């Protein structure tokens, strides 16, 4: 077997992101690809002995099956260096430790990532180095544009991987096969047949000690600006010529440039709320405003809904609802496509013929098509049934898919710079309206499904 050598440099390797998601995903990737000869370099301000670091890596990889030996090789070659990643001298030292042009993963807070990139600007980077950054990509459109300019000064765009792990979810990837390999769906994927689309990611989790980040972001920035707009782009884009990174990302970019607030009204098209005290799954939760580290004066929302339109020939007039929230009673993670009702029901059929609905679950990976059929025992009565199927899950978890693309230099699952800016452009009028208090901050008890006053799609 021909081995493929690579170096992965993780900045912030001792942090939660690295230990909880990155390294377990890397372990699954090594288990699936025994040909990968990986040199893993970890860096951070903490200090570890060589044995302590290898024990940490071994623990993170322990859930993966090392039948091919790639995990053992990676653990043996792995090193950890204590470093200040915002200084050019330490960044040069880290680059010198890499045996191959590294993929540098910034598992760091956004502000530290920017300072680290500024330190790299003072160095002569080796040919082939690539950069991987976690969201958020900037804090608004102007800062995203500034960050992109900084990155372009370091490496070409095709070697910048803006990580959105949602695009590594098997369900999102399966959207491509569902749409483009089935004649039954693609002809209906337009405004002649679709009434509305909802892309929802409701969590039962509350703040969970993330106030330092979340209280400055909120549901709109944390989930809708990044993840859900990217899911929308994959769901609604025109068929790409190939699944090559250039074609897929071009199609997503065109779609997002066509996306705008419903009716152009940031007040009517969006609404916000935050949870108050309540009971959730046997736990008593305090109000968000009373959570440790929260500044109530920021009026950070924990639930946001936004209605947008894709203003093109295929989708004009179809409302797309993007919704995400925390501390909700029901865990709902799905794309819900509601089709237009049948144009005519023959006389003699009793019961209610509801519009057909397609539910694409984002977790677990399932699909359900809800349709009307003749009821049991009475062929004149309409009944509702659901045709259910499970998606074939990928062999890698979301971060395994992401890391595979980073190490291989394939940016298909990465967010391109112009689309990162466009996602901010879409929501910035809403952010401005919320900062100006033009939109009320509603409330809902933790464990409920949101404010009782919220009905229908906002602005529609």
Characterize the structure shown:
The chain has 460 residues and is an alpha/beta fold. The protein is globular, with a radius of gyration of 24 Å. Helix 1 crosses helix 10 (398-408), helix 4 crosses helix 5 and helix 8 packs across helix 11 (417-435). The chain folds into 2 domains: 4-134, NAD(P)-binding Rossmann-like Domain (Rossmann fold); 167-445, Dihydrodipicolinate Reductase, domain 2. Strands 7, 8, 9, 12, 13, 14, 15, 16, 17 and 19 form a 10-stranded mixed sheet that branches. The protein has a 7-stranded mixed sheet with strand order 3-2-1-4-5-6-18. It has a two-stranded antiparallel sheet with strand order 10-11. It has helices at residues 16-32, 50-61, 70-77, 88-96, 110-120, 141-152, 170-180, 211-236, 245-257, 398-408, 417-435, and strands spanning 4-11, 36-44, 79-82, 103-106, 130-134, 160-163, 194-202, 259-261, 270-276, 278-280, 283-285, 303-310, 319-325, 332-339, 357-362, 365-375, 378-390, 414-415, 441-445. The N and C termini lie far apart (58 Å). It is built from 11 helices and 19 strands.
